[in-house]
Backbone:
């Protein structure tokens, strides 16, 4: 392997990145401490909107983390070389984003100081408790996976570990989707469609994040991405985006068919204010249709910058989708007495307002910054960047 | 926020696990000997166990009792936190953890061991007159014969029992 | 030990005698007297505590049960209603077509199959042997998953620091809480504070497992409803008149 090709990020860029990400991460930790010492009363979250902005960020990071590992899986499990050289970066990003997402989730807990309790008292009927195993297992398997890819002596095992990692990541995203799929109480959740939908969302968000990071890393190293590889990756992204769109369609169609769900669907699709806007403009128009148009456009689809724009849009659409699912799903009142109009001092029967506060945003961005910090440092000390020179002389677009 | 018991240090929060393990394991053992100047606030002259035993093991007793009471509804008073607070509340502050003068905080701040009990539990005994239950189960009454040998201890149990029987008919109205 | 038990029995017997005559309505005694459980004995699954609420007796606008709950369990308004704890609330219902209206108190339904217990990652949310669903604040990490899972909106998260708790009802920032059925009162043979406070006699507390208890007899005689019975949770709180 040609180690010369793994040039490291230039000093000035490296320290600038460390500074910026470090500041954002520090702001996030400060916000978490503020929330912890004052209580959640300083956030926008209430007894109605129980999970807020931190959860949107955390779930995006966790979902995208499992999705970003796909490139490695495509390489090891399905034996496609273009993806194989991307395996290490993809594994690194998976670990980094999962770490960032879990940090946000943990720091939002009412009692973050009881992390040890969460690790030692496990109720195995809880998806959360199962996820503790899935997350820790994911870290270990992906770490071993990266080792088998990096160490020449371990190459032979790479395929098997890669296969295990692929199965594990499917289980992990299923677990994340099941957090909501197992909730019988609220109308937005409680459907077996959610775990597969989360898996396809992870494919899409993960690849968008990968494209973004890969391009940035290549730029800082003054390297150019092979146009053939770029074309393959952007086509793959388009397929994933279309698949998410399909799942979204099926989800809402099913709900519309059930009379008991129509009022909820009217809320999300027609008169839900911010949620309706985020759904149609955020998720559908900006997050799905526009990137699809860019990626399939004969001119724009070939330009690196436009692929970046499309990736950014997909990520934005992902946040919009999760916001509508999480917050919109809680904003709509519980149907405790079907057939009755309910009112009470506890806001029964009312659309619940939610105004995310600054600390929540800071904590969320802090999680992203932690993922970015891990990636930046790791890429500098170890050869994680894809080296397409090993592919020369072979047909890249096999 | 004014209560020192409820204040969390940044360090403790960031490294809660590490701090708890290290400090809880190391400090109390070395601290307890030079700690004689701390005035022990207590009613009566005898605790439910020997002082030395309590110094080392009160947390184990409390932890055990906590799970018994919470999950099984066992409400014997001998090792209950409420019972500790009854005896050890500072007459000046009425509390066991409102200042460093108080019983719990006195030691815990000296040993730098974080106290989590009073995040939720009241640091004060139930105000007099509040305890009027129609049927109080003073299971500790018999215990009083051997363990609560002190005069004040006896008096307290008697008083509670009297209150309870006095109130037998009243409280249910 | 036998001596101890004897004295306890005598004592409790005396208490029972004093209360035996207290009847609020024909056939409705205030206390079920057969439940005396020594302090050292664990709650047992031979009992299942429950409530029967008659919404036809529950007056619109009356919040006595809510006030009594707050007083007993040590919480009140903090000025931010959206983050305030509400272990019990009065719900006003209006049938959409007919306008037929009801008023009733809503609290933790103490399900036999509680979703909050299933989802709790640490086991802090648990069901006691006698059917009371509780939160063990010692191991609650404040993730709020139970609040997402509860179909009755019966749980509250403590958003702010609290002081001067009722010594019998510890509660503090960062944990989730809900109606305990006044477990501390039940354990000394008292009724939940809300039941005791209801002047209309709209709430009846008792043992659902005992066929001779007043609550069981009434459920066997009259049509009663479980809220969201479609979910199959087998609630311990039942309603009459809706």
Residues:
């Amino acid at each position: 392997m040609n180690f010369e090709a793994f040039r490291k990020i230039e000093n000035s860029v490296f320290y600038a990145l460390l500074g910026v990400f470090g500041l954002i991460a520090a702001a996030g930790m400060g916000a978490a401490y503020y929330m912890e010492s004052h209580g959640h009363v300083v956030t926008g979250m209430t007894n109605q909107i129980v999970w807020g902005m931190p959860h949107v960020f955390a779930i995006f990071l966790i979902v995208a983390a499992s999705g970003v590992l796909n490139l490695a899986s495509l390489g090891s499990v399905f034996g496609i070389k273009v993806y194989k050289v991307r395996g290490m970066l993809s594994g690194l990003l998976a670990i980094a984003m999962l770490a960032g997402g879990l940090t946000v989730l943990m720091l939002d807990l009412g009692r973050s100081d009881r992390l040890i309790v969460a690790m030692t008292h496990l109720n195995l009927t809880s998806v959360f408790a199962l996820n503790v195993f899935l997350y820790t297992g994911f870290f270990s398997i992906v770490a071993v996976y990266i080792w088998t890819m990096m160490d020449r002596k371990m190459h032979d095992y790479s395929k098997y570990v890669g296969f295990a990692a692929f199965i594990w990541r499917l289980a992990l995203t299923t677990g994340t989707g099941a957090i909501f799929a197992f909730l019988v109480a609220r109308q937005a959740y409680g459907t077996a469609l959610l775990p597969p939908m989360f898996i396809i969302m992870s494919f899409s968000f993960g690849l968008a994040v990968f494209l973004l990071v890969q391009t940035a890393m290549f730029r800082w190293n003054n390297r150019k991405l092979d146009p053939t590889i770029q074309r393959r990756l952007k086509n793959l992204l388009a397929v994933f985006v279309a698949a998410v769109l399909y799942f979204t369609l099926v989800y809402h169609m099913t709900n519309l068919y059930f009379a008991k769900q129509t009022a909820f669907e009217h809320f999300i699709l027609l008169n839900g204010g911010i949620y309706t806007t985020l759904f149609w403009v955020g998720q559908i128009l900006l997050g799905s249709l526009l990137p699809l148009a860019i990626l399939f456009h004969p001119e724009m689809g070939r330009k690196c910058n436009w692929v970046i724009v499309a990736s950014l849009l997909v990520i934005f659409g992902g946040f919009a989708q999760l916001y509508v699912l999480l917050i919109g799903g809680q904003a709509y009142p519980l149907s405790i007495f079907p057939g009755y109009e309910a009112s009470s001092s506890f806001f029964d029967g009312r659309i619940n307002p939610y105004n995310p506060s600054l600390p929540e945003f800071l904590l969320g961005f802090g999680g992203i910054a932690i993922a970015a910090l891990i990636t930046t440092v790791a890429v500098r000390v170890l050869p994680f960047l894809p080296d397409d020179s090993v592919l020369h002389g072979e047909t890249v677009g096999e | 926020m004014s209560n020192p018991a409820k204040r969390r240090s940044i360090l403790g929060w960031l490294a809660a696990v590490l701090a708890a393990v290290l400090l809880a394991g190391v400090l109390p053992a070395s601290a307890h000997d030079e700690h004689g100047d701390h005035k022990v606030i207590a009613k009566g002259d005898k605790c439910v166990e020997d002082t030395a035993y309590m110094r080392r093991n009160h947390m184990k007793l409390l932890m055990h009792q906590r799970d018994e009471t919470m999950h099984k509804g066992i409400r014997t008073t001998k090792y209950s936190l409420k019972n500790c607070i009854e005896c050890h509340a500072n007459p000046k502050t009425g509390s066991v953890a409102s200042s460093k003068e108080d019983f719990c905080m006195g030691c815990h701040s000296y040993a730098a061991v974080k106290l989590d009990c009073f995040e939720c539990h009241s640091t004060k005994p139930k105000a007099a007159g509040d305890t009027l239950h129609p049927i109080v189960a003073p299971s500790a009454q018999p215990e009083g014969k051997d363990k609560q040998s002190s005069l004040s201890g006896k008096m307290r149990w008697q008083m509670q029992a009297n209150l309870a029987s006095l109130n037998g008919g009243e409280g249910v109205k | 030990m036998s001596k101890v038990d004897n004295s306890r029995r005598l004592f409790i017997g005396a208490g029972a005698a004093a209360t035996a005559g207290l009847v609020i309505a024909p056939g409705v005694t205030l206390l079920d007297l057969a439940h005396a459980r020594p302090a050292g004995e664990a709650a047992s699954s031979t009992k299942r505590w429950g409530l029967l609420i008659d919404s036809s007796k529950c007056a619109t606008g009356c919040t006595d049960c809510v006030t009594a709950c707050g007083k007993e369990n040590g919480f009140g308004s903090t000025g931010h209603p959206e983050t305030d704890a509400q272990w019990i609330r009065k719900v006003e219902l209006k049938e959409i077509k007919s306008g037929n209206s009801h008023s009733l108190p809503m609290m933790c339904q103490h399900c036999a199959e509680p979703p909050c217990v299933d989802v709790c990652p640490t086991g802090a949310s648990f069901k006691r042997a006698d059917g009371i669903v509780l939160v063990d604040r010692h191991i609650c990490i404040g993730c709020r998953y139970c609040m997402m899972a509860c179909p009755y909106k019966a749980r509250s998260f403590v958003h702010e620091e609290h002081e001067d708790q009722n010594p019998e009802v510890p509660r503090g920032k960062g944990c989730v809480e809900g109606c305990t059925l006044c477990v501390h009162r039940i354990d000394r043979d008292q009724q939940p504070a809300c039941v005791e406070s209801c002047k209309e006699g709209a709430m009846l507390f008792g043992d659902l497992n005992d066929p001779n208890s007043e609550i069981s007899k009434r459920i066997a005689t009259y049509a009663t409803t479980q809220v969201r019975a479609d979910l199959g949770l087998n609630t311990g709180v039942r309603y009459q008149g809706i």
In short: Chain A touches chain B at residues 33, 36-37, 112-116 (CB under 8 Å). The domain at 7-383 of chain A is CATH 1.20.1630.10 (Formate dehydrogenase/DMSO reductase fold). The first helix of chain A runs from residue 11 to 38.
